[in-house]
Amino acid sequence: MAAERVLPQIFQYVDQNVESYKNLLKEAVAIPSVSSDAKHRDDCVRMVEWMKEKLKEVGASTELRDIGFQTLEGKQVKLPPVLVGALGNSSHATTRFMSISKWQLFGRGSTDDKGPVLGWLHAINAYKNVGSELPVNLKFVFECMEESSSQGLDELLLEKLKPEGFFDTVDYVCISDNYWLGTTKPCITYGLRGISYYFLEIECAKMDLHSGVFGGTVYEAMSDLIYLMNTLIDKDGKILITDIYKSVAPLLETEKELYHTIDFDPEAYRKSIDAYKLPHNAVKEQLLMHRWRYPSLSLHGIEGAHFQTGAKTVIPGKVVGKFSIRIVPNQEPEEVEKLVFDYINAKIKLFAAYLYEVGKLPKQ
């Protein structure tokens, strides 16, 4: 059936089933599949099983693959299985918790990524219900650990699925992990920035100390970590690591013109994320370029810091700072890593008596 004839039927079917789509999303986000919390590991497994049943309902063949264990909260915890599936093998198919407030649904994964994943199921169901064959063959890999660095997934993909030939007939890969530019127009993202992630460990003592007794008589790990992390980026978001922008592709006039025509409202964007103010003077073109074509550095947290409410007077004996750099075309991970370590190395000389970067630099 030609696309010109079938697509109007598909769209009509979708419009007629909006309420059922909402109800299915409510059901999915009500499962608190929090991958970083050991208390919710059973919920993660439940989410995988739920998705397996939904794939079977649309006619897909499915399989659960075990991917081992992880250390979580000091214990060995079994990782949730990865759901692998396939739908169609036609040689003719070619690539062509929860609360509601009016139009918003809040819950675990409502937009990232349960909602988008369910969109695939709804599209498949729409084709089935209008009596039209899917124009492409599909394969699925759904995992529950994406928000925790996708632990175990690389090994499954590279050491098992790839040698088994799972990807031999795959021409293109789609992921369901991104957002619209605004709140009114759907969009397809055709590229993502990469990521280089770093852990910076500073140790000043083999134990935590009391500031009332030891303050002023020891080098403090927290103070020096904050100093170091503060040298990575300036107040306007510019990365301060030497030569980090050197290999970034130059901005050509033809590319620059594209940003003028993109439908993006900075003020609507600001409100949608409840931000107080946007950088780059909230200029549309600059915001888009810094979202897509320039690298960015983010500070994510500090292990070993005491975060409970109330006044704390401890001096942590060891802290680990976490930061990442989103890399862009023409930047290679190995090149970025060298720049980061060269930069940190130069700073480390200020604290050579006791400071070292995990796994890379020896204790001085």
From TrEMBL:
GO terms for biological process: proteolysis. GO terms for molecular function: metal ion binding; peptidase activity. The keyword Glycosyltransferase does not apply. It comes from the Eukaryota. Pfam families: Peptidase_M20. Keywords: Hydrolase, Metal-binding, Protease. PANTHER family: BETA-ALA-HIS DIPEPTIDASE (PTHR43270), CARNOSINE DIPEPTIDASE 2, ISOFORM A (PTHR43270:SF4). This is Jg2925 protein. It comes from Pararge aegeria aegeria.
